[in-house]
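dumping this here so i dont lose it
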């Protein structure tokens, strides 16, 4: 099975009161909803896990129901949508997700829920835990691989784990089980499935995974999809072919670009200076251990120094990119810079009890260095520029999520319908328990951004939803 993305949980104490769910209903309705110049009779959504409603590390029923695409479809019913928005539901509320086991073989798991855990020091905290701690692999494999193609075709074509180039991959049904379960034939391509529901309007939100795999691996073991290359190989040719295909089918639709993924909780939760020393003796002992390192770096005329003080300190990390010969590879370690990022899956117990970041360098796969962040940023900017160009070329609506996320970060969040959203892990209301995917309220907010863009482009009056009446994260039962 192809690895989709790896997650672990990071416990945090949360002193919040989470609100209960209720049935979502529209808010801020226009006096008379209208379609404007668009035809919303049949709506198809093409994308990845965000479109599918993947949440909290897995695909599960209520997450799919609260996908932004399904919320949008409910609002489109007020302006002329007459077809049922069909969804390939995973037949379990506990969900099915995949993470990489210690042997490198994918391990299936359930979604995360909020629960209590103890760290290596015996401290109890509230954070993400598996809904089922030791699930039956056979049962989850059955859920994941049982075909639901007979109930299709489907309007929600969000497939977890796919890249833009995968839209044209004739091996996708053999490598991605989330597509396998809806595929009619093993050599079918996802691209052709949009036509099966005879759409009059489409949404396309894809491209996140084209940089996310690289970023989530700390720049190790995965690559960023190159701009250049033929359809199925390069991002540009593949995106151009997909937009042309969908626009030819429908003539009307909306494209969304991708935010800088380094702003999501998966990358911005663990601070770079997580090594906190309480007294000078601790600092002196560590500094004595790195005295030879500092002397050697000075002798080579290199700027790297490792220095510990009382209080928060940058972690010591492995950096294979340091300008040292291979014979000195053991010295390719340094302290983190303030603008570098730590991946959420880093085992924090190793910081607390195994000397990571102080006595031992944090392995490279848990860190995004300045150079790796720049690689992600450059690709994201190039992808987004192309998507805006294509939206203009085919006269489509466009949602600039990159700008939206930057605005949220710049202003410390945004308040909508009395709910404050930020990019903080768990407490920010926007992202769920895997640090990548959206909460129900986050999906409602995203649906409203799509609605705003569609209304602006087509002169339609699609009612927005009240994000406050969508469920927040649930507190565990005592």
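and the seq i came up w/
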């Amino acid at each position: 099975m192809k690895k989709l993305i790896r997650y672990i949980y990071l416990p945090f104490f949360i002193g919040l009161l989470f609100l209960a769910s209720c049935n979502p209903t529209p808010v801020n309705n226009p006096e008379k909803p209208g379609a404007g110049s668009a035809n919303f009779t049949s709506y198809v959504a093409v994308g990845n896990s965000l479109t599918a409603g993947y949440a909290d590390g897995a695909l599960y029923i209520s997450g799919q129901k609260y996908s932004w695409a399904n919320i949008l479809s409910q609002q489109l019913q007020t302006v002329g949508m007459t077809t049922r928005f069909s969804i390939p539901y995973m037949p379990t509320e506990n969900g099915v997700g995949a993470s990489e086991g210690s042997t490198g073989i994918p391990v299936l798991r359930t979604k995360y829920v909020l629960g209590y855990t103890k760290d290596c020091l015996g401290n109890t905290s509230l954070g993400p835990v598996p809904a089922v701690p030791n699930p039956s692999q056979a049962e989850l494999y059955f859920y994941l691989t049982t075909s639901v193609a007979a109930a299709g075709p489907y309007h929600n074509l969000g497939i977890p784990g796919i890249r833009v180039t995968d839209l044209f991959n004739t091996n996708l049904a053999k490598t991605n089980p989330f597509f396998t379960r809806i595929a009619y034939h093993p050599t079918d391509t996802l691209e052709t499935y949009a036509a099966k529901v005879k759409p009059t309007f489409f949404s396309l939100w894809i491209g996140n995974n084209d940089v996310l795999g690289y970023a989530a691996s700390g720049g190790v073991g995965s690559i960023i999809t190159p701009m250049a290359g033929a359809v199925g190989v390069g991002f540009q040719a593949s995106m151009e072919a997909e937009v042309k295909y969908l626009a030819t089918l429908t003539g009307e639709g909306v494209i969304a670009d991708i935010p800088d993924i380094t702003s999501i909780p998966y990358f911005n939760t663990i601070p770079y200076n997580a090594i906190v020393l309480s007294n000078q003796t601790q600092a002196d002992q560590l500094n004595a251990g790195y005295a030879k390192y500092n002397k050697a770096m000075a002798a080579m005329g290199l700027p790297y120094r490792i220095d510990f003080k009382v209080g928060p300190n940058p972690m010591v990390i492995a950096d294979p990119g340091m300008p040292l010969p291979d014979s000195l590879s053991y010295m390719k370690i340094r302290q983190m810079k303030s603008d570098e990022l730590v991946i959420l899956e880093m085992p924090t117990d190793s910081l607390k009890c195994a000397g990571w970041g102080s006595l031992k360098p944090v392995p490279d796969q848990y860190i995004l260095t300045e150079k790796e962040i720049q690689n992600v940023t450059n690709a994201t900017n190039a992808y987004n520029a192309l998507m805006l160009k294509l939206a203009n070329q085919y006269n489509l609506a466009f949602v600039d999520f990159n700008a939206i996320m930057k605005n949220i970060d710049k202003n410390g969040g945004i308040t909508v319908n009395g709910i404050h959203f930020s990019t903080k892990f768990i407490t920010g209301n926007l992202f769920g328990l895997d640090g990548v995917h959206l909460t129900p309220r986050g999906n409602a907010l995203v649906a409203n951004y799509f609605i705003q863009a569609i209304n602006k482009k087509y002169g339609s009056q699609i009612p927005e939803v009240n994000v406050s009446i969508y469920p927040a994260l649930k507190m565990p039962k005592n």
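Confidence is low (pLDDT under 50) at residues 1-26.
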